[in-house]
């Protein structure tokens, strides 16, 4: 990987950890093979200089490829998985560019031109549901949006307040959506209703948010040196633990 010729603005590992994506200031998307260090793909849209990418989410499940296996509970087909998967990139214009990495092309754009309910402000964060067919996105507007990726349509809005949202996290079972700003709100995904509001304890808006695998604990942080841990199953809305990072 050549850092001297490609200064990354956004970067992330793939869900399988076999690939690494880096995105430059001019919105060139480079996908690297981790084992060999070789460039696997270089992608860019035709109008890539008219906006900036602001956030990303990567899933191994493709909403466009149906799996041959069916869900035993609901009898519905699940999205097929692949090594490269699907990469969603939020932009300063409010659009979300969803790349089908297997084909090396844009699969769909989630924007106001495809759904009048799309974002009018810059996208602050994106998170995929485990199926890859559903995506949640946030901005500084008062709603978090739930998208049907394949249809490029907004299926629901989660009202989060006038501050909007700076960060999202979805539990591993897709049951609980955490929305971070100056506070942290928890939503029951099935009903779309807010179930709890947590006291973030941070001086600024939340910039990192993640559930533990068991979904009982939620971790939050900002640009400060403090990390808060919440027990989302408890009645208390205050942090269970507070850790201070060593800045030495």
UniProtKB/TrEMBL annotation:
WD repeats lie at residues 1-42, 116-157. Keywords: Nucleus, WD repeat. InterPro entries: U3_snoRNA-assoc_WDR, WD40/YVTN_repeat-like_dom_sf, WD40_repeat_dom_sf, WD40_rpt. Pfam families: WD40 (PF00400). SUPFAM superfamilies: WD40 repeat-like. It is found in: Nucleus. One of its GO terms (biological process) is maturation of SSU-rRNA from tricistronic rRNA transcript (SSU-rRNA, 5.8S rRNA, LSU-rRNA). The keyword DNA repair does not apply. SMART domains: WD40 (SM00320). One of its GO terms (cellular component) is nucleolus. This is Uncharacterized protein.
């Amino acid at each position: 990987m050549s850092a001297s010729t490609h200064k990354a603005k956004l970067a992330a590992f793939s869900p399988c950890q076999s690939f690494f994506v880096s995105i430059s200031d001019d919105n060139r998307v480079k996908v690297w093979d981790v084992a060999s260090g070789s460039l696997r793909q270089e992608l860019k849209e035709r109008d890539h200089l008219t906006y900036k990418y602001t956030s990303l989410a990567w899933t191994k499940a493709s909403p466009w490829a149906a799996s041959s296996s069916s869900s035993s509970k609901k009898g519905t087909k699940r999205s097929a998985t692949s090594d490269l998967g699907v990469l969603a990139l939020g932009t300063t214009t409010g659009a979300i560019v969803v790349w089908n990495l297997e084909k090396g092309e844009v699969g769909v754009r989630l924007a106001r031109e495809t759904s009048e309910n799309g974002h009018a402000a810059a996208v602050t964060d994106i998170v995929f549901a485990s199926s890859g067919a559903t995506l949640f996105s946030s901005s500084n507007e008062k709603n978090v949006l739930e998208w049907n990726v394949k249809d490029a349509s907004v299926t629901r809005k989660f009202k989060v307040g006038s501050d909007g949202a700076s960060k999202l996290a979805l539990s591993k079972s897709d049951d609980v959506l955490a929305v971070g700003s100056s506070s942290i709100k928890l939503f029951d995904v099935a009903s779309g209703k807010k179930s709890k509001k947590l006291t973030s304890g941070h001086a600024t808006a939340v910039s990192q948010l993640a559930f533990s695998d068991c979904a009982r604990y939620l971790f939050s942080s900002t640009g400060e040196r403090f990390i808060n841990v919440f027990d989302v199953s408890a009645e208390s809305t205050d942090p269970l633990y507070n850790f201070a990072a060593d800045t030495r």
